[in-house]
Design brief:
The complex is a heterodimer of chains A (about 110) and B (about 110). By secondary structure, chain A is an all-beta fold. Chain A is built from no helices and eleven strands. Chain B is globular, with a radius of gyration of 13 Å. Classes of the chains: A mainly beta (about 110), B mainly beta (about 110).
């Protein structure tokens, strides 16, 4: 087991394009979280899954954002019609359950030009 | 006002110094995490606390639930401890993060 992996590590896109990120959590972990981090700030919660169920979404997650975890394993985060304000590091983390130690991926750095 | 406040925001130290980073929160929590983030983004969980004190090597984390306060201490600091240290609290099922404390330890 190699921990939480995210793909791609970097993504550069033009404004208005759609992008999709993938997160592969640690295999036995039920919880999967998505966070967004901008320079100099702490991560901000976006959404989380308990197995395949999306249990909470932040108000930061506008209608252009959608996340899925179809089989309770990997998850995807899609941003439609990207805007320059979407430029950030998108972090994924997983845990065995609530109130358990979190394991983070290395993140996907998105730059919207 | 942020729900999780850390102090100081920036901290420089000489190698060997004892370091304390503070975290105060305003929400009810079930657990508190201390995380370490190195340049390039990788985040590592150092501690998860719901009460009392935990120690791992040169790192010590304490929490006072009544005071809604936690501290992270680094004894005998070393340049490799240079990183951003982030406090995060479990509010129901999501984590709320502080903005981090940037620590630089000089030889």
């Amino acid at each position: 087991d190699t921990g939480v992996s995210q793909d791609p590590r970097h993504k550069i896109t033009k404004r208005g394009q759609n992008v999709t990120f993938r997160c592969d959590p640690i295999s036995e972990h039920n919880r999967l979280y998505w966070y967004r981090q901008t320079l100099g700030q702490g991560p901000e919660f976006l959404t989380y899954f308990q197995n395949e169920a999306q249990l909470e979404k932040s108000r930061l997650l506008s209608d252009r954002f959608s996340a899925e975890r179809p089989k309770g394993s990997f998850s995807t985060l899609e941003i439609q019609r990207t805007e320059q304000g979407d430029s950030a590091m998108y972090l994924c983390a997983s845990s065995l359950g609530g109130n358990e130690k979190l394991f983070f991926g290395s993140g996907t750095q998105l730059s919207v030009l | 006002k942020n729900e999780v406040e850390q102090s100081p925001q920036n901290l420089t130290a000489q190698e060997g110094e004892f370091i304390t980073i503070n975290c105060s929160y305003s929400v009810g929590i079930s657990a508190l995490h201390w995380l370490q983030q190195h340049p390039g983004g990788g985040i590592v969980s150092l501690f998860m606390l719901s009460s009392g004190k935990k120690k791992h090597g040169r790192l010590i984390a304490t929490i006072n639930i009544q005071e809604k306060h936690s501290s992270l201490h680094i004894t005998a600091s070393h340049p490799r401890d240079s990183a951003v240290y982030i406090c995060a609290v479990h509010d129901t099922d999501k984590l709320i993060f502080g903005t981090g404390t940037r620590l630089q330890v000089f030889p």
